[in-house]
Amino acid sequence: MNPVVVLVGPMGVGKSTVGQLLAERLGVGYRDTDEDIVAAEGRTIAEIFVDEGEAAFRAIEKQAVHQALAEHDGVLALGGGAILDEDTRALLAGQRVVYLSMDVEEAVKRTGLNAARPLLAVNPRKQWRELMEARRHLYEQIATAVVATDGRTPEEVTQAALDAL
Ligand code: S3P
Predict the structure, then answer these.
(1) What is the rounded CA–CA span in Å between residue 24 and residue 67?
(2) Would the CB of 80 count as within 6 Å of ligand 1?
(3) Single pTM value for the model
């Protein structure tokens, strides 16, 4: 079983909002690997980072992503860093993957200082620049379609994603 579409892209780009709208429009279910992790672990993502560090979170995330890819046949949104894992990128090859993109200034504006997002808790602009530089090519490498979200409403992004499928 494969998802109809997998949504990837940075934190705060709107994967959950657009994913739910997209699922409604396609008449399929929506699933989000961050939510799977929180439900399975009984603690927030921020708590996992604080308790065990990023590497432990990535291991938990990898397992959750692989399970969701195997089980879910609707719209699946992945956490922003899920594509850092090489095995996960290999699993995504051959699937329909939509990369929701935004530029750094849009990212800073949308997320700001964010305690719930441990990767942005200190200096968001600098952290965003580094994150985007490290990850942009990975998103592009696995995406079958790229949808820019800057200055667009979730409904407009959803329509653009549908057009790109
Ligand atoms: C992360 C993105 C978050 C969450 C965690 C790490 C990242 O997911 O998995 O805070 O590395 O970009 P969202 O993209 O759903 O916010």
Answers:
(1) 23
(2) yes
(3) 0.94
Query: What ligand 1 atom has the least distance to the C-alpha of 118?
Result: 10
- Band (pLDDT 50/70/90 cuts) for residue 149 is very high
Supply angle C-alpha 8, 10, 13, rounded to 5: 90
DSSP state of 85: S
Annotation-wise, does 15 bind a ligand? yes
Q: Where are the domains of the chain?
A: 5-164
The whole-number pLDDT of residue 120 equals 75
Look up tokens 């997002």; give the residue.
117
Q: Tell me, using a 6 A CB cutoff, whether residue 11 lines ligand 1.
A: yes
81 CB under 6 A from ligand 1? yes
Flag the least confident range among 20-24, 105-109, 113-117: 113-117
Q: How far apart are CA 20 and CA 158, in angstroms?
A: 9
In this structure, the residue with its CA closest to atom 2 of ligand 1 is 80
Instruction: Give the mean pLDDT of the chain.
Output: 93
> What atom of ligand 1 comes closest to residue 84's alpha carbon?
11
Closest residue CA from atom 10 of ligand 1: 117
**Nearest to 74, CA basis, from 39, 36, 24, 120:** 24
Contact 149, 102 (CB under 8 A): yes
CATH architecture of 5-164: 3-Layer(aba) Sandwich (3.40)
